Amino acid sequence: MGKLILHDIHKSYGKEKVLHGINIETGENQFLVLIGPSGCGKTTLLNIIAGLEQQSQGEILLNDRPLTHLSPKDRDIAMVFQSYALYPSMTVRNNILFGLENRGVPRAERQQILAEVTRMLQIESVLDRRPRQLSGGQQQRVAIGRAIARRPSLFLFDEPLSNLDAKLRVEMRSEIRRLHKQLQTSMVYVTHDQIEAMTMGDLIAVMNGGIIQQLGSPEEIYNNPANRFVAGFMGSPSMNFVPVTVRSGADGLALQVHGKEGGEVILPIPRRIQAALRPQEGRAITLGIRPEQISDPDSAREGEALHTLDLPVDLIEPTGPDTLVFTHLLGHPLVARVHPSTQLSVNGNCSLSLHLERAVFFDADTGKRLA
Ligand SMILES: Nc1ncnc2c1ncn2[C@@H]1O[C@H](COP(=O)(O)OP(=O)(O)OP(=O)(O)O)[C@@H](O)[C@H]1O
Ligand SMILES: [Mg+2]
């Protein structure tokens, strides 16, 4: 068990519509990540699932049980907030035990749950401290421990790691994933951070403006974005976007790039997508290509066609495992990802290969994926 269904959830605050028909169905015990920019409605959706807010329309089912008319405490859901929300005057032990006592769990069972949670989260040494005597990471562990102690059918996390430093975040990410495997319970996890979404999610819902832009596995979302918003939001540095016009040439269709100050470059269109772009002939569309698909000329995989260009180097950013090159194609900015040993100099030129086989194409007006 452990299946969540959100069916056509709408939410308005007065006249302001915040959610416009959210539909999500998770598999058994999946880890669902909600990601999107600030204000897109993530917390609102989480609060509606928890019962802290009422939806204006729509139905929620948890393990085939409708939740809509149940109060928060009857929903069998535990929520972990960004701000931890621990009771400041209680020890860690009592923070974890409090909810259990309230619900009349017998003493022996409470002690057993406490021991189990303490061991899972490695917080034995801090059980007698109060929250203010803990580091941010420890406080977050206790907040998660308190949620686990309730043994809910569903966990909701609202940006639980955003107050932690970078190293601790990475550790806690894998810890939460490990807990998910161990507990075999559905989790819904809200984040701004696309690396967190990619590394943690079984299923990712990318939201914008109160709408789910795409629901899919991390791989689908990254490699097969439904529209320009998703393509640009997921991935760091962001996907490159270049305005192009579809022209017919000697070898079928080709892409014409117009220079910002005159000039043009013609790029071939891979055979695989010639047919899909045929209806766009003569139209201006958007080419999308990720930084890692603009790379050293020798980076091609077998059978992959490359289109190599000599491009100016505007800026170089070594990241360690690879180096980012900021360049432009006739004034249209591009970021490329090259091997750290590549010889580069700012204001010099550099040979870069576009893996056009991996490029994606969007309608210039609507942002919808064309191919
Ligand atoms: N109680 C409320 N009354 C009126 N408007 C609200 C209320 N709560 C949220 N909103 C509005 O609903 C929209 C969505 O807010 P929400 O908190 O769900 O966004 P979010 O995606 O969680 O953003 P963030 O990433 O910044 O936490 C925002 O425009 C916000 O101003
Ligand atoms: Mg929020």
Bound molecules: adenosine-5'-triphosphate, magnesium ion
Overall number of domains: 2
Label the overall shape.
elongated
Which series of helices and strands comes N to C? EEEHEEEHHHEHEHEEHHEEEHEEEEEEE
Any idea what the CATH architecture of the largest domain is?
3-Layer(aba) Sandwich
Helix percentage: 10-25%
Per DSSP, what share of the residues sits in E-state strands of 2 or more residues? 25-35%
Count of distinct strands: 20
Mean pLDDT comes to: 94
Look at the helices and sheets and give the structural class.
alpha+beta
Strand order of the largest sheet: 6-7-8-3-9-10
CATH class of the largest domain: Alpha Beta
* The CATH topology of the largest domain: Rossmann fold
Q: Whole-number radius of gyration?
A: 25 Å
By CATH, the superfamily of the largest domain comes out as P-loop containing nucleotide triphosphate hydrolases
Main β sheet profile:
6 strands, mixed
User: What's the N-to-C terminus distance?
Assistant: 38 Å
Low-confidence stretches: none
Number of helical stretches of at least 4 residues? 9
